[in-house]
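Q: I'm a student working through a structural biology exercise. My instructor gave each of us a protein and asked us to get a predicted structure, then write a short paragraph describing it. Mine is Carboxylic ester hydrolase. I'm not confident about reading structure output yet, so if you can add a plain explanation after the tokens, that would really help. Here is the sequence I was given:
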Amino acid sequence: MTAPLVTTLYGKLLGAEEEGVKVWRGIPFAAPPVGKLRFRAPQPPQPWDSVREALSFSPVSHQPVSTSSTRFGGTSPDYSEDCLYLNVWSPAEAGESLPVMVWIHGGTFVTGSGSQPMFDGTRMARNGKVVLVTINYRLGPFGFVHMSPFSSEFASNAGLLDQIAALKWVQGNISAFGGDPQRVTVFGESAGSMSIAALLAMPAAQGLFAGAIMESGAGQTLQPEQGQEIAAALLAELGLTPGSDLEVLDNLPAEQILEAAARMTYKLSGEALSMFFQPVIEPMTVPADPAEAIAGGSAQGIPLLIGTNLHEGNLFFREERPGESFEQSLKALEMLMGIDDLAELAVDYPKSWEGQAELLTDLFFWGSSIAFAETQSAAAPVWMYRFDWTVQGHPLLEKAVHGAEILYVFGNLHLLKQYGLTVTPDMQKLSETMQKTWTAFAHRGDPSIPGLEWPPYRADSRATVIFDGETQVVLDPDAEKRRRLFSAQANWPKVFSEKTGE
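A: Happy to help. First, here is the predicted structure for Carboxylic ester hydrolase. I'll explain a few features afterward.
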């Protein structure tokens, strides 16, 4: 068997063939963002002359060391600022130019990597006849601290700029891997989905992808004043001020910056849910809130597949996990969403950990996704889903928690053994259905497949595919809750009040 060799704009890459798929790992799409490139916009990678082996994953972006046995498959990856690499899976017997799916991982903008085992692209590329790409991007203080107000040399939203650099690399190079640069679909979950919302609003991302799939996350940004306050708090933890000679930041140990970020986060939020590192409204990168930008037509003509899981919040609030009181949690959610007062809406929820989980699910995930779907439906076709699948009696997956759909989308069900589960025929059937609809969307811009005619989402019908034991189309699921959710519109951001009536 001959190892796959491709020629990119930067040099030749030698990959491997595994399980009917050609794979190239650890491909640089930008220069290492270290030293003078720390806190700056990504720069192109340096070309190479000899054949470069692309057989191993790269280091992952600096982040808190994972204590989970599942995130990196029980192994400890290398953590480094030199992390701007991507991975490509392509069917061994393609025979034609294939659609491309670019995965943007989640992790609240502070954790994760494109090399996590759950994102292995082998099955999705082979079964769906797509070229699949997973990427890294800078996280936490390295990728999402609002530095541009302090110097014209610094960039804000560096992590989003990394994603754009990866998409530009795809445009220039993916044809060598069998992919069609005119048929690129971005898809992501949680912070990856929120990243896609931001990309839909960013002028620099226009033309880099033709479709979008957003799983469990809509537009989420900080106002510039908030971002600047957080950046100043981080500098204070480092013994600096905005007026200091900030060139010293180029040479500080990365660990020192991470430790300062952890101290700052704890001082500002304690144990409450918070996202201090996330996209920020900033004229050079994200000039408007994503909800407002798409309402203004920034994503004109880009079809969207969007949805959530039935029990998103139950990943974060569980009976055995100590947490904040209901009132403290409500304040944290108000801060997270930029809403002044949720007290009126919260009356309908029990003052317990279950109530906190349900409120987070309904407002932060489900409600914001409905609003995003309705807004984009004026500019392009939109399809909506909900993932309801649960495993009876399982301590975690007896609820359809945040992130539970990912293994089914990628077809990596063998990893369920990490949760003490054996794959059943019903699980396999569900996974095949989800993977077929996702890849159908990449091929045709429509997720309908034989046996599942999936109508677009419109305000007069609200057709939603429910993925469960029996996958089916439901019109306006939980209609009464939806109406109640939007009844207190006066205090909600603009996107929640524009098109969410009857």
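A: Here are two points you could use in your paragraph. The first strand starts at residue 5 and ends at 7. The domain at 5-62+82-498 is CATH 3.40.50.1820 (Rossmann fold). It's a good idea to check both against the output above yourself.
Q: Great, thank you!
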